[in-house]
Amino acid sequence: MSTDRIITLHGEDELVQRAGHLFLASREEFLVAAADLMTWSAGVNAAFREGKRPRVVPGLTMRKLYSRRALADPESLRRLRRIAASGIEVRISDGPIAREAIVIDRRTAILAGAPVRGVRAYTVVHTPEVVEGVRSLFRATWEGATGLADCAAPPPALTDRARAILRTLAAGHTDEAGARLLGVSLRTYRRRVAELMAALGAGSRFQAGLLARGLLDGEAGPDGPR
Asked: Which sequence spans correspond to the domains of the chain?
């Protein structure tokens, strides 16, 4: 599909070949929203390498926003810290990322689709109203996100019991309803919720519910939950 203001590209190679110059042309603002480190890294890095341009240039604001899927393991955390050390601002959203996107200089938005047989479609949009809408969504999520320095460790590995409790928190069930759903006493349920909140570093049930949505979303593959 192609119009003057909307172009759909298929796969990272075509993204770099036909849109790589847009990455290199960024001068004021380069915003990235992604569920994890895989969606954009290969294409963006290839474009900057081919253009022989450093990612961080004077006067350019670079911000990268990820869901907690990006903290899936120690190596991912190390990669994020290297990104932050290069001068790029990095934040982590407790909830899922509504739309994986790149916004360049308030003029261009690139939206990533879900992989189909291992290949993503990327939609390049130049329509001002759409670009501003994507940018506004990014800014709202960014403001509520956590700085990387406050995300010192990846989330704990989840047991089946922990996943069940997280689902009750994400659904907003009362303790009584959660205990009934899991077939345990109210006292046992509350104790397990408290233990899980401590492991997640959640300071409230509300925060635990937000973290639950992010973590359970992070366990979903391209065809749904695993």
From this structure: 6-150, 160-225
